[in-house]
Design goal:
Layout (H helix, E strand, L loop, with lengths): L3 E5 L7 E4 L4 H6 L1 E11 L4 E5 L4 E9 L1 E5 L2 E5 L3 E6 L4 E5 L6 E10 L2 H11 L5 E3 L6 H12 L6 H22 L10 H12 L7 H8 L3 H12 L3 H19 L4 H7 L5 H12 L3 H8 L5
Antiparallel strand pairs: 1-4, 2-3, 3-10, 4-9, 5-8, 5-10, 6-7, 6-9, 8-11
Helix pairs in contact: 2-4, 3-4
């Protein structure tokens, strides 16, 4: 896509604008900053662009801005931020009804920047705009980047430090648009069943056994176990057995048939089939692959 840029810089002298030429090793291997700034923009400020290999995060501190991006128009007020792919056509400016737009921003690129951006859009229902929650450190991360690049000398150490802060910034933006998942408390009966199965994984345990031992109907047990654990009791036991089998394969010289029997599977062929299903390899290949590795 050919590059296009039209802009008007209407900003107060106290604004800060840093254009960075990062160390080449950082550019090849890390997330890296291209430009960043703190703008006290006036009513005439605008940028229209496309075709730039960069991602841009811009946080509104006060005033109001407007973003046009991917067919959508967004009004940007204090606490709002946008995250866009600058290869796509974009237009952002001080809003018509505002006399200023005070913003902090960073252009960045590099390792897995596209992956971060894709995850942000997926978590944000494909919107380019989010809002900073009260406990967010997004602004502090931007301030840190401005501080470390104010007297930048092109050293790799600063770029490594910057990559860490950039990761924290991107993570903060993702958290800002992601709904926290509240895990329901695990019922004591399900916790007890899991503990029993972990202690007795090498025995044949049926739903009838569990129902009788824990005084719960088979139907309610199956439904409740799946609700809280995400899988059936039988599948839970198989996963425990595979985990234990991997330990034995790595720490002993037991024949495969004895490993199978030790985790409660009498048929060696069935054990190999199950192991291949879960690990995408055979028990023998797994043992050889881990033979010389240290935990």
């Amino acid at each position: 896509m050919p590059h296009m840029l039209d802009y008007r810089i209407d900003m107060e002298p106290r604004s800060q604008w840093e254009i960075i030429s990062v160390n080449e090793a950082a550019k090849q291997n890390l997330l890296y900053v291209q430009e960043l700034g703190l703008f006290y923009s006036g009513p005439a400020y605008y940028t229209i662009r496309k075709g730039l290999d960069s991602y841009l995060i811009k946080l509104t501190l006060s005033g109001c801005g407007r973003l046009e991006y991917e067919g959508q128009t967004y009004s940007l007020k204090a606490g709002d931020f946008f995250w866009i792919d600058c290869r796509n056509p974009q237009s952002y400016r001080t809003a018509q009804n505002s006399d200023h737009w005070h913003v902090m921003w960073v252009h960045f690129y590099g390792a897995n920047a596209a992956g971060w951006y894709s995850l942000f859009r997926a978590q944000n229902k494909n919107s380019a705009v989010g809002h900073v929650p009260p406990d967010s450190k997004i602004q502090k991360h931007l301030e840190k980047l401005l501080t470390i690049y104010r007297f930048y000398k092109g050293d790799l150490y600063t770029d490594i430090q910057s990559a860490e802060i950039l990761g924290q910034l991107l993570s903060g933006c993702l958290q800002a648009v992601s709904s926290p998942m509240t895990e329901p408390a695990l019922p004591s009966v399900i916790s007890d069943i899991c503990s029993y199965m972990q202690d007795n994984y090498d025995n044949q345990i049926t739903l009838d056994d569990l129902s009788e031992r824990f005084a719960i109907s088979k139907f309610h047990l199956q439904r409740t176990f799946r609700k809280f654990m995400g899988l059936s009791p039988a599948e839970y036991q198989r996963r425990i057995r595979m985990a234990e089998a991997k330990k034995l394969l790595r720490t002993t010289r037991m024949p495969i048939s004895e490993v199978a029997y030790a985790v409660g599977i009498e048929s060696t062929s069935h054990f190999i089939s199950l192991f291949r299903k879960y690990e995408n390899t055979t028990p023998l290949k797994y043992r050889h692959a881990w033979a010389d590795r240290k935990s």
